[in-house]
Each structure stands twice: as C-alpha cells, then as structure tokens.
Amino acid sequence: MKILVIGAGAWGTALAMNAASRHTVQLWARDGAQAAQMQAAGENTRYLPGIPFPAGLQVASGDVQPLVAGADLIVLGTPMAALRSGLAMLHGSLQGRQVPVAWLSKGFEAVPEGAPAGSHGLLGNEVCAQVAAQLHAGVLSGPSFAQEVARHQPTALVAASEHADVRDALVTAFHGNNLRVYANDDITGVEVGGAVKNVLAIATGLCDGLNLGLNARAALVTRGLAEMTRLGVALGAQHDTFMGLSGLGDLVLTATGDLSRNRKIGLLLAQGKSLHDAVQSLGHVAEGVYSARTVLQRAQKLGVEMPITETTVALLDGSMPVRDVVQALMGREPRAE
Ligand SMILES: NC(=O)C1=CN([C@@H]2O[C@H](COP(=O)(O)OP(=O)(O)OC[C@H]3O[C@@H](n4cnc5c(N)ncnc54)[C@H](O)[C@@H]3O)[C@@H](O)[C@H]2O)C=CC1
Ligand SMILES: O=C(CO)COP(=O)(O)O
C-alpha cells in the first residue's frame, strides 16, 4: 500500500514511522528546510528527537500533487486549524477519484475572531461535509502519545468513518504487531471524544497542579466523561462510543499522562503562567486551548450542561482566576448522578 502522510508534526511522523516497515510511506512536510533536515538527520529532530527513522521512510516537500496522485491512502496529520484547507486541497486534486482520506486532528474548529454572534466551529466530519462532501473520509483517533507509537510501544487506535473502505484502508495501513486498529462507524462520537478530552485534560492538569488530590482527579475524569457523553449524544453520537477508546480511553490517557500537551497547559496555569506563555513553551499544538470555547458554544446551543468545560473556558478566557476554579466546581447545587 502507498501511504501519503501530509504534515510532519509529532503524530503524523510517528504513524508514518510505524507503517514504514510494512508499506511504502511518504511523509510530506510543508517546510522544505525541515524536510531536508529530517532526511539528513534520519529523525524528526524538532518533534520526535532521538527516535531514528526506520529504513524506507521517505520524506518529501514541495509540490504535493504527484504524491496525492500516486497514493492509496492519504492521511492529514495537521492540527485542526489546517484541516479545512487540507480537505479542500484534496477535493480539488482528486477530482472525483475515490482514494480513502483520513485526518488525525482532534478538536472542533475554533470560532474565528470577529465571527458573528451565535456562530460555532465544527467537527472534522462536519468540515468535510462542507468542503469535500464526496470524499470517502474518516478519522484515526484513540489513546496514543506520538512518542510511544514512534517507539513501537503497544497502542490501540480507532478508525472511524461512515465509509467501510476508509475503515478498511486504515486497518490495513496501521494494524500491526504493536498497533491494534479497531473500526467504528460512529465518527461523530469518536470525534467528540477526541475533542472534549483535550479540554478536560487542561482541567485535570490544573487540578493536579494545584495539588487538589487523587479524589479530585478521579471526580473530574468521571464527571468529565459524563459531560462529554451528554454533548456527543446530543450531536447524534452513540452512547457506547464514549465507553471506548476515543472516549474513556483517550480521556484517561490525556488527563493523567504527563506526555499530554493539554495536561501540561493546565499544570503550567496552576503554576501561575499566563496562557500565552504556557502555549509558547510547549512548541506543539494543544488543541483543547482552541476547541474549548466551541465545545461550550455547541453545548449551550443544544441545552447541554458542561460545568467543567464552562469553568475551563472561563479560566482560558481570563474571566476566572485560578483561585476561584475549585469553588466554581464544588459550589454547585447537589444533583443526582
Ligand atoms: N502528538 C500526539 O501524541 C497526538 C496528536 N494528535 C492530534 O494530531 C494533530 C497534530 O498533532 P501533532 O502532530 O502532535 O502536532 P505538532 O504540534 O507536533 O505538529 C503540527 C505539525 O503540523 C504542521 N502543519 C500545520 N499546519 C499545516 C499545514 N497547513 N500543512 C501542512 N502541515 C501543517 C506543522 O508544521 C507541524 O509540523 C492534532 O490535532 C493533535 O490533537 C492525535 C493523537 C496523538
Ligand atoms: O491525543 C493525544 C493522546 O491520545 C495527545 O494528547 P495531547 O495533544 O494533549 O498531547
């Protein structure tokens, strides 16, 4: 199989490295200098330093069209902010040819600055329906830190699409000795899980950074899962999806695993860092920062209560100081579980 991965950040690179022993894999970086540097060093020095590329992984840059034309599977490994342009580009270049496409981004599109009141951002599959409706597309998601996948540590992923050929292509491409890829046709559920867990991981990082304790962390994860599930079901997802890899699985990993960039944002905010400084210090994308407001807007439109998300948004917006967060969450009226 010929796989083209567009975007050479941590996650696109890790998956490309993992698949390269079984398939022909091209990893495309938009920055030509970064591509040349990766080729020369035999590793992605910027995003996955110290983990050597396997033999056979091809790094590319420049005109992506010939690579698109020759691929059996195209993976968009960019952050959510670049998904719309990536799908539109593929829509134009494939010209109706049916090649399975998948994105790795986890989030809702951010609401653009100055957007009219009431507008909200979209999930990947909603963006795809707007700009590339006839593509057979889906998402690869689930609990997976790039560093561990690049080192071939055991990991389980979920390939979600309404198109069986996309699910099958993702399983063929990535299922192997150290990676299990499960298929799921509930793409909305899988995407809501991947987006909301990032926001909840910021909240859990804050909780741990403030030393609120293990009980508090367990409460946040559990009540976070409840609010993620409420939103997903209201958006048309299946309840059971949230008990799976992209719901409970990715929430546990991201909220409690110190490799998480979103969790790091919460830990840094707890230390008194500004959001700007916290984001700058990461050097990677933390999607929860950009999705949080959209998650809340979508929830409010649907009449779904998401108190942890609401508090996290207030914190990120600067309208609630760190010291008031505990009271905002613990001071709520009693209710049934
Ligand atoms: N790093 C991880 O462990 C995982 C990340 N993800 C998700 O995958 C997505 C990408 O994350 P990372 O690779 O970690 O991000 P990263 O911050 O490591 O790298 C982002 C990469 O995307 C590239 N990029 C941005 N806009 C682009 C465009 N228009 N065209 C081509 N390349 C572009 C950047 O140059 C950079 O190489 C995010 O949505 C993230 O939530 C999902 C699972 C695991
Ligand atoms: O999605 C991830 C793990 O599944 C990566 O999480 P972070 O983006 O918080 O690092």
TrEMBL record:
Predominant localisation class: cytoplasm
Places the protein is found: Cytoplasm
Catalyzed chemical reaction(s): sn-glycerol 3-phosphate + NAD(+) = dihydroxyacetone phosphate + NADH + H(+); sn-glycerol 3-phosphate + NADP(+) = dihydroxyacetone phosphate + NADPH + H(+)
Record: active site: 197 (proton acceptor)
E.C. code: 1.1.1.94
InterPro entries to which the protein is assigned, alphabetical: 6-PGluconate_DH-like_C_sf (IPR008927), 6PGD_dom2 (IPR013328), G3P_DH_NAD-dep (IPR006168), G3P_DH_NAD-dep_C (IPR006109), G3P_DH_NAD-dep_N (IPR011128), NAD(P)-bd_dom_sf (IPR036291)
Assigned keywords, A-Z: Cytoplasm, Lipid biosynthesis, Lipid metabolism, NAD, NADP, Nucleotide-binding, Oxidoreductase, Phospholipid biosynthesis, Phospholipid metabolism
Domain (Glycerol-3-phosphate dehydrogenase NAD-dependent C-terminal) ranges: 186-327
Pathway(s) of this molecule: Membrane lipid metabolism; glycerophospholipid metabolism
GO molecular function terms noted in the UniProt entry: glycerol-3-phosphate dehydrogenase [NAD(P)+] activity
Group of enzyme by EC: oxidoreductase
Keyword Lipid metabolism included in the entry's annotation: yes
Positions annotated to bind NADPH: 11, 30, 47, 106, 146, 261, 285, 287
Residue positions binding sn-glycerol 3-phosphate: 106, 142, 144, 197, 250, 260-262
Glycerol-3-phosphate dehydrogenase NAD-dependent N-terminal domain: residues covered: 2-164
Pfam families with a match to the protein in the record: NAD_Gly3P_dh_C, NAD_Gly3P_dh_N
Segments traversing the membrane: none
Family to which the UniProt record says this protein belongs: Belongs to the NAD-dependent glycerol-3-phosphate dehydrogenase family.
Functional description taken from the UniProt entry: Catalyzes the reduction of the glycolytic intermediate dihydroxyacetone phosphate (DHAP) to sn-glycerol 3-phosphate (G3P), the key precursor for phospholipid synthesis.
UniProt-recorded name of the protein: Glycerol-3-phosphate dehydrogenase [NAD(P)+]
Biological source species: Comamonas odontotermitis
